[in-house]
Design a protein that fits this description.
Elements: H1 4-11, H2 15-23, H3 32-44, H4 51-58, E1 63-68, H5 77-89, E2 93-98, H6 107-113, E3 120-124, H7 131-139, E4 144-146, E5 156-158, H8 160-173, E6 179-182, H9 187-202, H10 217-228, E7 236-239, H11 242-255, E8 264-268, E9 282-285, H12 288-303, E10 311-313, E11 319-321
Parallel strand pairs: 1-2, 1-3, 3-4, 5-10, 6-7, 7-8, 8-9
Antiparallel strand pairs: 9-11
Helix pairs in contact: 1-2, 1-3, 5-12, 8-9, 10-11
Length: 334
Amino acid sequence: MATQRDVARAAGVSLAVVSAVVNGTSHTRMKESTRTRVLQAMQQLNYQPNQTARSLRLNQTDMIAMILNKLDNPVYAPLRHGVYEAAAGHGATVLLGDAETMRSGSQFLTRLLSQGTVDGILIRGEGLLDDDVMAELRDHPKPILILEHALEHPWIDVDDRRAGEIATRFLLNLSHRRIVFVGGSGYLSQQRYLGYQQAMDAAGLTPAPHLATGFGEQAGADGLRQAMQAATAPTAIVVNNIMSAVGVLAAAHDLGITIPDQLSVVGIHDVDLMRHLRPAVTAVRMPMYELGRAGVEALYDLIAGRPSAGGVITDPEPELVIRDSATALTRIHD
């Protein structure tokens, strides 16, 4: 069985460096390339840390929890991958929970809050947790980091306002002027709408009211139907969430609206499914993988008693993925 000394020899580093990587400590300074070399040596030698001894020494369980609203939401796939990879770098495993099923006294919450179960908790979907659950979480002795904007806890998030602005500016550059924003509710949706509003204001246009119909396919369908009831129908639509864009496409088909010839559509967030739809959906890809990695690192700062460098991730910023659901405005709309 390989030892830390074997790993140090294979990586060409000191034993102290290997120990720092294994224990996830910051007392030993090293380049990221050095850390990578140590991790590669550990993998090549099939090195397995003595987790029991390490946990007793550090008073840690080497497990963190991540609570998401709707675990099956494909938007969260890159977020989970980022969390898993960063957690593995700290020698930790991840316990998953669904915010929609968490209630005060639930089995998962009871296990989660048991003494010594986890070293810290990541949450996205704080608004879905009722007051009793949040009160129990606040009383938990281990640190909590929110993977979205929060008031009472350290937090880190992607730039939702910038995403709304990017989507709207793209449509403005395609000569659209009657653009609406549909779907969503809550703080992050308000931020995306503010980005839409900012772009419309900069173009000298009056923003349409936010049709906050919620999330998911039905919300997208409802949003489109409401938008088309306006005295002047829109020529383009920014959809708050990419899964709601599926509902927009379905409702457009039912209403006899051709996308993109009669209506251009851009969704916020991106999942692999969108390139397989017809038309394939133009989307603003959010740095969810980076959010996952940054969230774990910020959580481990809190675990170590250091202040967390949270806030909005601006590098990388949201990225426009151009597909087939949006096109330049033609005379048919004049």
